[in-house]
Design a protein that fits this description.
3-stranded mixed beta sheet, Rhopdopsin 7-helix transmembrane proteins, mainly alpha, single chain
Length: about 325
């Protein structure tokens, strides 16, 4: 039986993310713009994979898999990296420290956000080659996934990096909530001169980031425990030995072996990270007045731009000499 919900939910997540995009474009929230970009790309990839490999596990579109598996793999660290950046900003605006309006400080903050939300995930995806023992893993109904050699390097390069970012994000979130607790009776007055954020938006950001951290940590720990629990920590003898096999590991739906069952379960847990995070993001912000106002302004701007493209250009007659 085809799991039609996989591509349907993936593309529904894409459409729902487009609904809240104007809100974060208007606020120029760099971490959340990167988050939406990562989720858009990953949901599209997973939707396509779910269609192509819905009823089969044929080895095809190898180039596509080589391209998309690092992107899906990078999402593991992109989610907690975004949460860390946002929680850090929440801690700053909720604290008693002076908010700097120096352009150099704003530039540093932007560079930090780009580094965390783009550079770190890209480097994380590149480091995957160290522990990639197969070209990729192909799971029926889900498509291609990154192959991981369960070893000590994988423990640090694959699983502990996201958990480390999650821990830092939780630390900043705890400080943010502590700052709120200290001045909860006049917190909105405290935020007003320091940020355009309302108390409601403050807790929406905080709650969503904690949810993303929990989601990432849960999926990461499950992936680590299931893979190490099945194979143990294998010896990473040499680069050549680990990368000697360039084949594709295929798991069919009909395969009821323990290894195939665990592989499908691991794949499904990781697969659901993108749509769940997407729908959680939309549920957090779609009901806010700011989101609807930003969406309305965005639609008006697009309408004016489209009308301007197709409206006749005014003609100017040259004066007769």
């Amino acid at each position: 039986m085809t799991r039609i919900e996989l591509p349907v939910l993936s593309f529904l997540a894409v459409l729902s993310l487009l609904f809240i995009l104007p809100l974060h474009l208007k606020s120029r929230n760099i971490p959340f713009l990167f988050l939406i970009a990562w989720l858009l790309v990953c949901n599209i990839i997973q939707g396509v994979d779910a269609i192509v490999w819905a009823n089969n596990a044929l080895i095809r579109a190898e180039g596509w898999c080589d391209l998309v598996t690092p992107i899906l793999y990078a999402l593991r660290v992109a989610l907690p990296a975004v949460a860390l950046c946002v929680c850090r900003q929440l801690e700053i605006v909720s604290s008693t420290l002076d908010v700097s309006y120096d352009p150099r400080d704003k530039y540093f903050t932007s560079v930090f956000h780009y580094f965390m939300c783009l550079v770190i995930p890209v480097v994380y995806a590149i480091l995957h080659f160290v522990v990639q023992d197969r070209r990729f893993v192909l799971v029926q109904e889900f498509g291609c996934q990154a192959a991981i050699f369960p070893s000590a390097p994988a423990l640090f390069l694959t699983w502990l990096i996201p958990l480390f970012l999650c821990a830092i994000a939780v630390f900043y979130a705890g400080l943010s909530f502590y700052n709120y607790h200290r001045r909860c009776s006049f917190f909105s007055q405290h935020l007003n001169p320091r940020s355009k954020m309302t108390t409601s938006m403050f807790f929406r950001f905080l709650g969503f980031c904690l949810f993303v951290v929990f989601l990432t940590a849960l999926a990461d720990i499950f992936d680590m425990a299931s893979l190490i629990g099945e194979f143990g920590l294998l010896n990473y003898t040499s680069w050549t030995a680990v990368h000697d096999d360039d084949s594709v590991l295929v798991f069919f739906k009909e395969d009821r072996s323990k290894s195939a069952t665990i592989a499908r379960l691991r794949t499904e847990v990781i697969w659901w990270m993108a749509p769940i995070a997407s729908f959680a993001l939309v549920a957090t912000f779609a009901s806010t007045k700011e989101c609807w106002v930003a969406g309305e302004h965005f639609c008006i701007a697009v309408k004016k731009r489209v009308i301007g493209l197709f409206s006749p250009k005014p003609k100017f007659d040259l004066p007769i000499q």
